[in-house]
Amino acid sequence: MSRAVGRIAVLVCTYRRPAMLAELLASLAAQRTARPFRVVVVDNDPDGSGRAAAEAAALAVHYVVEPEPGIAAARNRSLDEAADADTIVFVDDDETVEPEWLEALVRTCERYDADVVTGPVVSVFPPHTPRWITRGGFLQRRNLPEGTRLESAKSGNTLVRTSALAGPPPLRFDAAFSRSGGSDTELFWRLGRSGSTIVWSHGAVASEPVPDSRLNARWIARRDFRGGAALGRMMLRDSARPVVLAKGLVRTAVGAVRFVIGTVVHLGPRASDTKVMLFGAGLVASTLGVHTDEYRRGPTKG
Prior knowledge:
This protein is of the alpha/beta class. The chain folds into two domains: 8-214, Alpha-Beta Complex (Spore Coat Polysaccharide Biosynthesis Protein SpsA, Chain A); 217-287, no CATH class. The chain is built from nine helices and ten strands. It has helices at 18-29, 51-56, 71-81, 101-112, 131-135, 183-193, 217-235, 241-265, 271-287; strands at residues 8-14, 37-43, 61-65, 87-91, 96-97, 116-118, 121-124, 157-161, 198-200, 206-209. Helix 8 (241-265) runs antiparallel to helix 9. The chain starts with 7 loop residues before the first strand and ends in a 15-residue tail after the last helix. Mean pLDDT is 93; it is low at 298-302.
């Protein structure tokens, strides 16, 4: 018998994106579902730049400021603020969700009696996007068949039964990944390895605009490299350093061969090839103690 989802809280962590936050909250207000849910917004900006958007939303929003910098601190604060919820749903502040989004996540959760359900995030490209990016599948994510089992997930569009986080001690996002990124993948990696069921919801669609700052090879390469480095740090907890190094070297070599052949055959690079190569390079880097600082911030005002 499938477990009921119970009380639902939608959790949003935000940092200096008030206009995008307003669009997300509008899409949450437009949800077509009979299931009651509440919204928690945790602002990681000490100046509270998201407060006006939260207060102007067309639905009730519980808004708090988390002054400790770092995405892990903000995510953990959101868990604390939703301590009475049976089910939590993470969505990013630069996303918007379809009207059937929440209902689709919950239906999948109930159908498969899953602990974690994650869904697709569709990239919305500006008209001036370089052709090689869209043609090669860069910055685009797959939409898998309904119910596909996964080893991990990200927090951009993900439902979690709070019982899966109960512990003891309660599972939380690791602050060691705040600056490098990957604290969400790391938490869901731990959940998957501990026996939690993680499945895909094909119809729970969120959309995310791609900013101009990401429409270049340098950003794309750094992102994939960072993903491999973060994965390597996770693997090193259970595997010997030479094992992770060997896997990284093999993956890098295979990816490099695929990149050369794929670029020639398809008259341009493909994301599937470059990701294998750069993830492999990130794995290698992790064994050498290399960390990336994707979310490093400058000094805040005041």
